[in-house]
Amino acid sequence: MSILIYAESAEGKFKKVAxxxxxxxxxxxxxxxxxxxxxxxxxSDVSELSxxxxxxxxxxxxxxxxxxxAKAYADxxxxxxxxxxxxxxxxxxxxxxxxxxxxVSVALNAGFASNVVGLPVNMxxxxxxxxxxxxxxxxxxxIASDIKVLCLGKNSYGIFENAGAAAAEDFSPSISDAxxxxxxxxxxxxxxxxxxADADIVVSGGRGLxxxxxxxxxxxxxxxxxxxxxxxxxxxxLGWRPHSEHVxxxxxxxxxxxxxxxxxxxxIQHIAGINSSKVKVVINADADAPFFKVADYGIVGDAFEILxxxxxxxxxxxxxxx
Length: 322
Hints:
Strand content: 25-35%
Oligomer: single chain
Structural class: alpha/beta
Strand order of the largest sheet: 7-11-6-1-4-5-12
Largest sheet: 7 strands, parallel
Shape: globular
Number of helices: 7
């Protein structure tokens, strides 16, 4: 019997969440005496997974699956779970996997828990800790079904190397035309920048930056940190930045290692969407901005003075330590 993970990828490379999921699965497998099997889709070199405790890789190569289609991918995961007699199926809490996981759970008649933030609290009965109420609280969820599907929250467990030798096996699930009721017409991707979904650090700007012409300061800081840039809802509504950069409860939720908010007052919807980030730094001229109440570190001052100085200090630090 094996624990099955769906190892997400993009453009032929594994996403970081795949390695976190593998690390998480391996730890459970060590306590239960199971192995870890990873399902990959259209990845030629899967050897990297063996660094994180994966024992076996089921490689799916299918041109029809070049673009993510939830129903087709769910069919592939279901058939992989049946092949491996997997009772525990693990996915990440990414946008794609949060579409995918409920379809998988229905297909397997399995219990489902999303936003899991730690190893199972108990194995019998099976209980997991989860984020609840827009990351303001935790709950303990019990799953009584024989088969269980979990979505692990991003950056909630960590990545741990556990080197081994993963055996790769070609796998050809039966994918029907009915799985492609939704057609992908085009895919637009940014290039040369860290995406919000994959970023460990996000630098986010609000109306305090006063206009899109001032975004260069934010981008300079992000470039030094290797961070993604983001924005608050009012900024995207004003058209200063694309809606793809809007983070918060009504935009993209983030759970980064470091979140830097510049000129963002801290509306409750924004804070709810970034509250899972481990360290929150706020730069704002208004000492009474609500964001300071949830910040780990705060700087009261003019962002137009602080950002250039901070960027230069970080550049000098990197130069000294390179």
